[in-house]
């Protein structure tokens, strides 16, 4: 089912002529990105454009996931940023089955890692280590610890079944897989971490969690086809509007959701837009709100703080549960006006009221409506945002596919820790 983008309210805050111009530019950029093929200067970083191609090794992944689901109590997903966020966002939000899934390789906190190891004690453990360039400190150091932990409990033959590595061909990670007989899955060379949702990077974890990988990829492909049929469609529209608003005083985009289980999808979105656009002192700063909680804190700033924010509402039509407020007249709590109402409607009313209030308060409000939260919708949503982000970055005049700023922090950390230069 389709996603709907409504930009009516926010458009009023943009300069009409500029918005029209950005729409034309966005469509041109979309065409260039998708049509150029091997001749494109972006060829090396746009392997994500076709979901079906990105979603390689599916049979192998399904087979391994079956084995893991039959044998594992715990599956540890070791990765950071683009190497764990897309899968995590779905696993944390959807109804999963199978082993418990834990996350490692995304912190250097001793307490967190020690607690993860405690949780593994006495359990049947499988791990998937994911790293595009196997230099990132967090997954690398955690793999070291987990490998030792497992080798003290399993024979090398057992280890070979229990460890899956996902990296690029020719990398040190592939050599380690070969040397130890671990299954090796492809982190496609032409796909960067934050654009890797449809690749094996996330597919194994999704399959282990019992999620429908085929429906997920089909969702991505459906959005790919829809955008192609409409020369960039809603992705180009969202990018154009962000660009037109960004050229005024707006500096922050708040992605607000009224379903707390979208938290990790919002986190995925922050990496996507933050790393893609935050360059050359440009780009909207991506921030997120989880409502109602944040309405009672950040809501104040949204309503009356500095007018530098635009707000995108990630709305869900079908919350996936029905729960009504039962009348209880005798209790006298003065909430009788809610009698018989469904929480879906109450939440929707809160969302509408928030949009109205923030609009009146001078915040350009964009609405993206998702029909429900399932694999297909996540597929559509990821593809929509990835395409919108690539187009948006190019409208801004930055390279949406690199992240030199992150490398900068890594360099100073490596030197502080005494890492030898390669
Ligand atoms: O998969 P890796 O190479 O370990 O990268 C994991 C993450 O860390 C890096 O610092 C990059 O900034 C991210 O874009 C990337 O997703």
From TrEMBL:
<keyword id="KW-0324">Glycolysis</keyword>
<dbReference type="Pfam" id="PF00342">
    <property type="entry name" value="PGI"/>
</dbReference>
<dbReference type="InterPro" id="IPR046348">
    <property type="entry name" value="SIS_dom_sf"/>
</dbReference>
<dbReference type="InterPro" id="IPR035482">
    <property type="entry name" value="SIS_PGI_2"/>
</dbReference>
<dbReference type="InterPro" id="IPR001672">
    <property type="entry name" value="G6P_Isomerase"/>
</dbReference>
<dbReference type="InterPro" id="IPR018189">
    <property type="entry name" value="Phosphoglucose_isomerase_CS"/>
</dbReference>
<comment type="pathway">
    <text>Carbohydrate degradation; glycolysis; D-glyceraldehyde 3-phosphate and glycerone phosphate from D-glucose: step 2/4.</text>
</comment>
<protein>
    <recommendedName>
        <fullName>Glucose-6-phosphate isomerase</fullName>
        <ecNumber>5.3.1.9</ecNumber>
    </recommendedName>
</protein>
<comment type="similarity">
    <text>Belongs to the GPI family.</text>
</comment>
<dbReference type="GO" id="GO:0016853">
    <property type="term" value="F:isomerase activity"/>
</dbReference>
<keyword id="KW-0413">Isomerase</keyword>
<keyword id="KW-0312">Gluconeogenesis</keyword>
């Amino acid at each position: 089912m389709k996603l709907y983008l409504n930009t009516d309210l926010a458009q009023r805050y943009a300069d009409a002529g500029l918005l029209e111009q950005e729409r034309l530019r966005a469509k041109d950029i979309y065409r260039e990105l998708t049509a150029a093929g091997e001749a494109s200067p972006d060829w090396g970083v746009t392997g994500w454009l076709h979901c079906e191609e990105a979603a390689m090794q599916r049979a192998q992944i399904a087979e391994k996931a079956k084995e893991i689901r039959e044998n594992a109590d715990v599956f540890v997903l070791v990765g950071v940023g683009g190497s764990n966020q897309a899968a995590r966002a779905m696993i944390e939000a959807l109804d999963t089955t199978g082993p418990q899934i834990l996350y490692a390789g995304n912190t250097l906190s001793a307490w967190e890692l020690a607690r993860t190891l405690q949780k593994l004690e006495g359990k049947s453990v499988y791990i998937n280590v994911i790293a595009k360039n196997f230099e990132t400190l967090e997954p690398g150091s955690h793999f070291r610890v987990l490998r030792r932990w497992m080798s003290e409990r399993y024979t090398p033959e057992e280890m070979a079944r229990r460890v899956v590595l996902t990296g690029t061909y020719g990398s040190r990670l592939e050599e380690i897989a070969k040397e130890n007989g671990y299954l090796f899955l492809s982190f496609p060379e032409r796909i960067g971490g934050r654009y890797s949702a449809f690749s094996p990077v996330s597919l194994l974890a999704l399959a282990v969690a019992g999620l429908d990988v085929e429906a997920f990829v089909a969702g991505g492909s459906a959005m790919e086809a829809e955008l192609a049929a409409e020369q960039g469609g809603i992705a180009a529209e969202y990018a154009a509007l962000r660009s037109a608003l960004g050229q005024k005083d707006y500096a922050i985009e708040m992605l607000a959701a009224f379903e707390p289980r979208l938290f990790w999808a919002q986190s995925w979105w922050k990496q996507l837009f933050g790393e893609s656009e935050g360059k050359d002192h440009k780009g909207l700063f991506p921030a997120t709100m989880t409502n109602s909680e944040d309405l009672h804190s950040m809501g104040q700033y949204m309503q009356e703080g500095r007018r530098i924010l635009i707000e995108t509402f990630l709305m869900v039509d079908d919350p996936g549960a029905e729960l009504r407020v039962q009348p209880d007249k005798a209790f006298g709590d003065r909430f009788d006006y809610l009698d018989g109402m469904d929480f879906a409607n109450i939440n929707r009313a809160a969302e509408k009221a928030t949009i109205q209030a923030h609009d009146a308060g001078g915040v350009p409000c964009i609405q993206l409506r998702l029909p429900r939260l399932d694999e297909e919708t996540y597929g559509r949503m990821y593809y929509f945002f990835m395409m919108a982000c690539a187009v948006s970055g190019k409208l801004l005049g930055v390279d949406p596919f690199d992240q030199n700023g992150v490398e900068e922090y890594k360099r100073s950390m490596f030197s502080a820790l005494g890492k030898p230069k390669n």
